[in-house]
Design brief:
Elements lengths: L14 E2 L6 E2 L5 E3 L2 E3 L1 H5 L6 H15 L4 H17 L8 H33 L1
Antiparallel strand pairs: 1-2, 3-4
Helix pairs in contact: 2-3, 2-4, 3-4
Bound molecules: zinc ion (2 copies).
Length: 127
């Protein structure tokens, strides 16, 4: 195999980034937790971003006590999902963001259903 570095044309790659699969040369290889990463991946923070956590917490809050938080959870979670897909936010936050959105959607549909049930019940009683 004679692959060349993804960043330095003509320089022989010595390893592959474990995260993105890019070939890296000796200069670009970054050792992290005994794994090889490229400089770009090493530069991105690996913990979930605050926004991902906020989305999950809003989702939980909306689910457990105050429904309106669900809307914020969905909004924040969607923004974070988009940022992650653009590699603008750490992928570690994807699960949190997804759960924030998911919990928000569940809460909204539960709220919608109970509202519909109340309306229906009123209609039935009135008629
Ligand atoms: Zn990489
Ligand atoms: Zn290189």
């Amino acid at each position: 195999m004679s692959a060349t570095c993804g960043r330095h044309a003509g320089v022989l790659a010595v390893d592959v980034c474990e995260r993105c699969g890019r070939f890296v040369c000796g200069d670009c290889a970054v050792l992290r937790d005994e794994r090889t990463w490229c400089t770009e991946c090493a530069a991105v923070p690996h913990e979930a971003s605050a926004r991902a956590t906020v989305s999950l917490l809003l989702g939980l809050g909306g689910f457990l006590c105050c429904g309106p938080l669900s809307i914020a959870a969905i909004a924040v979670g969607r923004v974070e999902e988009r940022a992650i897909s653009r590699h603008a936010a750490p992928a570690a936050g994807l699960r949190r963001a997804r759960w924030g959105v998911r919990l928000g959607l569940i809460q909204l549909s539960v709220a919608g259903l109970s509202l519909a049930a109340v309306v229906l019940w009123r209609l039935l009683r009135a008629g």
